[in-house]
Design goal:
By secondary structure, the protein is mainly beta. The chain has one helix and 15 strands; from the N terminus they run E-E-E-E-H-E-E-E-E-E-E-E-E-E-E-E. A six-stranded antiparallel β-sheet has the order 1-2-11-7-13-5, with no helix packed on it. Strands 10-8-12-6-14 form a five-stranded antiparallel β-sheet, with no helix packed on it. The protein has a two-stranded antiparallel ribbon with strand order 3-4. The structure holds dtdp-4-keto-L-rhamnose.
Amino acid sequence: MFTRLAIPDVILVQPKRHGDHRGFFEESFVASRYAEGGIEGPFVQDNHSLSGGVGTLRGLHFQTEPSPQGKLVRCTRGRILDVAVDIRQGSPTYGQHVSEELSAENGRQLWVPAGFAHGFVTLEPNTEVQYKVTSYYDPEADKGLAWDDPALGIDWGLGGKEPVLSGKDTQHPVLADLPTYFTYKG
Ligand SMILES: Cc1cn([C@H]2C[C@H](O)[C@@H](COP(=O)(O)OP(=O)(O)O[C@H]3O[C@@H](C)C(=O)[C@@H](O)[C@H]3O)O2)c(=O)[nH]c1=O
């Protein structure tokens, strides 16, 4: 149910779905079991976004001290490519990323700990993303990293098309210009 990815602090969760003639039932979060799987809360806020068009890209975002956020992300309508970039100075995987497809259909969740920049691109219209976070929203601590920094080498699957972005997401610095916000603790 819990799979550590190529960057092992990022965890893919596949909750068990009990299907029957009505549809399915799943436990989408169980604090004790998720803690055993390496996903440490406590979670203090739930977020929900809707993106209308295919190719809507939100990211790459993170919150710094004093409000670093771990995020437990899932897609409850449509489909996304979800991306986590390691921005912990001194980490053996600094600047590297992992990406996973999350969809309403596959039910997968991605645990993105503090110290990672997070973003996603929508692969279907009217895609809804819901995620639990471990710190409250703190606009002062809310920071970004350029989604298209060539040094990151992220394949967003846009096929040469321009993504739909917020104004804010056109302004973020590249990795080389990012101050040290997080240090790797092993
Ligand atoms: C993130 C956030 C935004 N807002 C407000 C600020 C703004 O007016 C409006 C839209 O905010 P944004 O443009 O930052 O929304 P968005 O681009 O969807 O930001 C989100 O992107 C993904 C990738 C993440 O990882 C999240 O942590 C978050 O940063 O909502 C809150 O009130 N609370 C929040 O927790």
